[in-house]
Specification:
The protein has 2 domains: 30 residues; 52 residues, no CATH class. It contains 1 helix and 2 strands.
C-alpha cells in the first residue's frame, strides 16, 4: 500500500470518528445550563433572525447571545433571557 492510500484511509477514519463523536456528544450532553454544547442552528426568539454559530463577544455583558436585528438577549440554545 503506498503513502497516498494510507493518507486517504486515515483521513476517512478521522472524519468518521469525528462525525460519530459529534452525534454522541449532542445526544447525551445536557441541553440546558452552562455546560451544554449546542450544535444546532439558533434563531432569535423575538424576530426569528438566524444567529451565527461562532462569534466573539466584545465585552463580558455580551457573553450572552444578542440578536443583531432586535437586540434580544438569549442563551446558546435560543431561549430569551432577562437582562
Amino acid at each position: 500500500m503506498d503513502d497516498i492510500t494510507r493518507i486517504i484511509i486515515a483521513a476517512l477514519i478521522v472524519a468518521l470518528v469525528s462525525f460519530i463523536c459529534k452525534k454522541l456528544i449532542s445526544k447525551y450532553w445536557p441541553k440546558t445550563g452552562k455546560l451544554g454544547m449546542n450544535f444546532e442552528k439558533n434563531y432569535c426568539p423575538n424576530c426569528a433572525e438566524k444567529m451565527p454559530k461562532v462569534r466573539k463577544p466584545a465585552n463580558l455583558r455580551q457573553t450572552l447571545w444578542t440578536c443583531n436585528k432586535c437586540v434580544t438577549e438569549m442563551d446558546k440554545y435560543g431561549v430569551k433571557t432577562t437582562p
